[in-house]
Amino acid sequence: MAAVSAAQPRASKTESYVDNKRKEDIRQSNINAARSVADAVRTSLGPKGMDKMISTANGEVIITNDGATILNKMEVLQPAAKMLVELSKSQDAAAGDGTTTVVVIAGAILKQCLSLLSHGIHPTVISDSLHKASTKAVDVLTAMAVPLELSDRESLIKSASTSLNSKVVSQYSTLLAPLAVDSVLSVVDPEKPDMVDLRDIKIVKKLGGTVDDTQLVKGLVFDKKASHAAGGPTRMENAKIAVIQFQISPPKTDIEQSIVVSDYTQMDRILKEERNYILGMIKKIKATGCNVLLIQKSILRDAVTDLSLHYLAKAKIMVIKDVERDDIEFITKTLNCLPIANIEHFRAEKLGHADLVEEVSLGDAKIVKVTGIKDMGRTTTVLVRGSNQLVIDEAERSLHDALCVVRCLVSKRFLIAGGGAPEIELSRQLGAWSKVLHGMEGYCVRSFAEALEVIPYTLAENAGLNPIAIVTELRNRHAQGEINAGINVRKGQITNILEENVVQPLLVSTSAISLATECVRMILKIDDIVNVR
Amino acid sequence: MAIEKILKDDASEEKGERARMASFVGAIAITDLVKTTLGPKGMDKILQSTGRGHGVTVTNDGATILKSLHIDNPAAKVLIDISKVQDDEVGDGTTSVVVLAGELLREAEKLVAAKIHPMTIISGYRMAAECARNALLQRVVDNKENAEKFKSDLMKIAMTTLSSKILSQDKEHFAQLAVDAVMRLKGSTNLEAIQIIKKPGGSLMDSFLDEGFILDKKIGLGQPKRIENAKILVANTAMDTDKVKIYGARVRVDSMSKVAEIEGAEKEKMREKVQKIIAHGINCFVNRQLIYNFPEELFADAGVLAIEHADFDGIERLALVTGGEIASTFDNPESVKIGHCKLIEEIMIGEDKLIHFSGVEMGQACTIVLRGASHHVLDEAERSLHDALCVLSQTVNDTRVLLGGGWPEMVMAKEVDELARKTPGKKSHAIEAFSRALVAIPTIIADNAGLDSADLVAQLRAAHHKEGCNAGIDVISGSVGDMAELGISESFKVKQAVLLSATEAAEMILRVDEIITCAPRQREDRM
After folding, report:
1. Is A99 a catalytic residue?
2. ipTM, 2 decimals?
3. Which DSSP category does A343 fall into?
4. Could B50 and A533 be called an inter-chain contact, meaning their C-beta atoms sit closer than 8 Å?
5. What does this protein do (chain A) (predicted)?
6. Does the beta-carbon distance from B259 to A257 stay under 8 Å?
């Protein structure tokens, strides 16, 4: 390859001077690329942050404030920039919120690293010092945190609304925050109190209405119509629900088959047989007392035919068809029933029970709601409404963040102040710590501390305040021992942020700091980009 | 006087000096590419794929870098091969071996320029290598008898290996993980039994070692989520329908009820198969292929835990660790070996649910779960950990241990230098050159750490003039330090492999005096 043939035989190895120009260049360009990614999302930080409109390659338009989503859709090519995108994804996986924060912090640390490198400090020295600083930072944060009880619903709601306040849907935070808290708390398993599986919370999106109409449903919601063909029932009280994985349609074998029809009477007989076959199945179903059927989508053959729908309607059985296979687990868990894969296994004990299954009109669309489920599993469904697809999507993402925030609190029960307070406090304490360190380390930790000020700075800047005045004022207040002083964006001044109910989970802050540092260290250690197969 | 053409049109031929130059240039370029990754303060490389997706890998592992390069130089390919062999044989030292070979060639180039015949150089190198190996053999420490000390040796080796990798900050944690895992193997080098699972999220410190086996799959619907004293049947069989696989086979019937009968018969066949499987007296069934809804329900009814679509690697390992065999027919229950384990349960790591088999038959088996910020971190962590595991398992077999940090190179260089003084003739130049190449390794380590290599290496050489000195480069403080005190150790086997394969590779390249490039095969125009 080019790289090989271009290299000239070098002069003797014993020369002490080594030419590092190319390596410096690569590092520089990596850092610059990563920083430009960070700058792209910087303005979306905080409650007064702006949104980005992304138009994807296939013409789809997304409006969002969520860092992870923005970066995900940006399709960056530069490898170092890609690492920042990955970073945001990891934060999304680890904490769910703070996806913008983590990238902004990484960008700021990289900026400081540039100046450190230009002073001739060795990258590995910087990297090691950053690691030390971040461990210390996590300690400081943990010391600042306030413990929380899960029974303290107020605090949970506060932190969920802090997360929601920076989103498009912020005006609905009073509605969405309690909703997020309730849904997470309802899926916490008392046996494993630290674990929350967000897959137990299903978010159903339905166009129409406003975000105000978003609701928590204790039960199931299907974004489908009940089958109307032949006038089947659309409302069923005291429902006995069966989840079936077989098809109510004429038989079909796996081996190829053909029916040979030789005369007219035979044709008549075949039609009759088909009817009898289906009728037989439906009778068996009816015999168990089942009155609501959820039918899994089938690719091999029709799940239901018009004929079977007709008979089902006559038998007063409500039908919801085309249920995805992936959803079956969630549904059976919620209904506390078992899926039925064969008509022979159709037994009453496999059915689920609910007080009411009904089709509800929402605007011009219809959904099916199942409520009053007996022995309901630990699942919850949230029905998100919105006036257009963009709002709904953004509402869903915001809700996801809020759910994650609550989940973080469930697994690590500590709260910390928001509004830039922890960052400025970190910056102050690390700054003080750097003075007792020796050599290069102290210098690097000092820079790390300065980099953290980017968060309050950006918060203020995005809110249209004077960032320098705010940051210096904050430093001053923290120096006087008000460790919870932060930026109150709404009032445009500095207040005790804990009293303003702006709180966030400790996990979000700690993982943002440690992930950002880890990523920066990785970028620093790279000295070459090699093209490979 | 025209010479007849011997070779084909596009083939080229390079001779003598030119051929030698081409190999030197290629080999040295490769060396320069990877040498910055050497040592605890070595740097990483981004490997950017030019293929689809432009995947990005960040790595410090020499073998990984070299493996992925586009190379058009035959000599460079030789170096890549020795790095691969080193990776397969001992797992670590993949960069060192390339760097040493490169340095040997760099020295040889100068000797050739000074009109010394390549064969003379080769025989000098051979003598030097033999002498260097003996020097190492005299200094090895073997703590085979003392279990306690041996364990601390292993720990040190693991830490030394990991200190040049991404895991360096948490090296104690990972060294402990690796040592524990290897100790479980009880001397076998079968690294298959150690499974590494990567899950994004959390930090590297959250990684842990778990006894038993973890399968990244879901348990079927309505089946028990926890089984004690499990009997496991591992299978690779189709759980949809056994089809007649003759093309064009079809059934002709004349009524709908017959179709229904056939369908019923198919179902019945499936049911029989499931019954046969259950008749093995199992309560856990793991299949490599899909399990359809119908058999899944049958299993659920029988209270058997069925896991579908386990990947090939997964079931082979599972069969290995649970002591079972992969079955594909179920007619003879007595001939099928069934795996056992104490407990199967669903666990949650990060956001994902996985299935954990604990108390497995093969006691050595264990799983290391790696957590980390991103896929880059995880992949690199896996490679690093793999290196450490390889080295450790080799060390368990060959318990001889050396000090690290450039100490072995200095010891060898000193002995080789003495040999040079005793050897008459032109060979002594080559032997001297060998010693210079050895010293290049500590020099590069120092350079990579941004230290003054010339000064440090001179100090080291002076320190090594005394007998029984433990001096090496202490990269952290940037000075010469006592390697025994700092606890920096390396496996003898790795060092020996580095020395011998690097010498051999250099020798091979030196012998070349003509490179013939064959004409590329003509591609047909496919229109």
Report:
1. yes
2. 0.74
3. G
4. yes
5. Molecular chaperone; assists the folding of proteins upon ATP hydrolysis. Known to play a role, in vitro, in the folding of actin and tubulin.
6. yes
